[in-house]
Structures are given as C-alpha cells and as structure tokens.
Amino acid sequence: MVTEAKGGIRTRMPLNFLASHRSLRLYTPPRFENPTQEGSQDIWASIQELIFPCLPSSSSSAIETFITPEFPAGIFPNLHTAVFLHDESLLAFDSFLATHGKSLRTIHVQVDRCFTRRLFETLTKCCPVLHEILYSIDLMGLIVNDGDRPDSMPGVTTVGFQPVSHQLTKFERKEFFDGILFWTPKLFPNVRTIRIFSEAIILHFQRCHTKGFDNFLESCSSLGIRVEDHFREPLNTPRLLEDKPMDSAFLDSQIIPECPHHSHPL
Known about the structure:
The protein is α/β, with parallel strands linked by helices. The protein is built from eight helices and ten strands. The protein has one domain (12-265).
C-alpha cells in the first residue's frame, strides 16, 4: 500500500490509515510538510516491511516522519525489513535506525559515496540481528579508502548488489566484480550468499560479458559463496557444504583480485 500526503496534511493521516488497515504487512509512508508531534499509543504488529521511495529533493523526507514522536520505538514490533530507495541525509538515516533498527533483519539501501563508514557503524550499532544487506549503487557508489575500512559485520550472511546502470563496459564490469570479490569476504566474513537482484543486469552479464561473468561465478564457488538472482534461484554451485561454517583462513587463502592503491569501488 502506497500513500502520499500533500500540502499541509499532517501525520495524523497515516495513523488513521493504519488504524483502518490492521492487516497491512508492507507500508510505504507518505511525505509530509508538517509532521505532528503527537505520539501514537497503538502497536502496529502487522507491519513487517517499510519502503521509502524516491522523493523530490524539495520535499520533506518520509524517513523524518518515522523519527518523530508520532512513531516511537517499539510501535512496529514485527518490523524486519526496511528499504531506502533514495539517498537520504545521514542524520535521518541514523535516527531512523536508532529508533526502529533493533528488529531489522534486512536492509536495502541506495548507497551514496559518503555513506561508507558511517553506514557500517550505524548498522552495527543499531541493527544487532541484521543478516541481509542489499545495495543499489553506481560503480563508484561504495568507496572504501585505504586505512578507512569499517569493521566487519560477522552477522551478515547475505549481501546483494544492483548497479544503477544496466549497461556496463568491460572495464566497469571488471571493477564491479573485482570490488565484490575483494571486499565482500573482508567486510562480511560469514557471507554465504551474494544476490544480484536485477534481472536486467544478469541478462546483460550473460549476453555481453559471458566469460567475465562465468569467471566471477567460479570465483564465488571457490569461496563457498552461493550467487543467486532476485528470485533466489542459484547461478552457481558453491564448493562448501551449506552447513559448514565459513573459515576465515580459507577465505584468506583464496585468490582475490588486488585492490587499487587508493580506493576500492564495489
């Protein structure tokens, strides 16, 4: 269900809407010009997923609505997924996760290049049960500079990637795959699954970068990492048994592409 509020409509509207739809599982909040400061006393147990869509830069953030007293911590006790389909201010993102991140198991975020370290620090601090992170990025969207690598997140077992562009040059494809192979095992030492959640980019790889894509899948297989599509269908066959814990010594022993000297795009 997608709702939108315009003009001076205040945030009493989503409270009324939620009160009338007690079985909603997924909710896309509207944007508001004048959020109220009235706190809700209700618990919306049916809401499991929040999706924050792309918004005009001139509009107030939908995320900011969910860090007002109207939506206090604990109001969505069964919330497990949050999707941020646009670049948000770090303050709003941090505040939202501080308020509602405790139960989140999956986050999908469009990564701006300034997100890198702060993103990981916030997720580590505010999302203790997080096990799946999905990124929508441009090729230089996630930059990790030498000496500025964030701490690893051992609880994350699934990482997803979607380039913003669905048409990559040979060089861009190589940078994309090399970045994933270099950084994923380091930042997520217990990763078991890499998800490429765009049908269009998978078709592009299969048709235009067949050899490079096959080499990428083979490299993931040798690391014991399953690669899957948006529908969670496997694209390779990992060589480790699914119930065998990932061994960091094994990961370190694999041939992983060298990173550039100054920055490492994923």
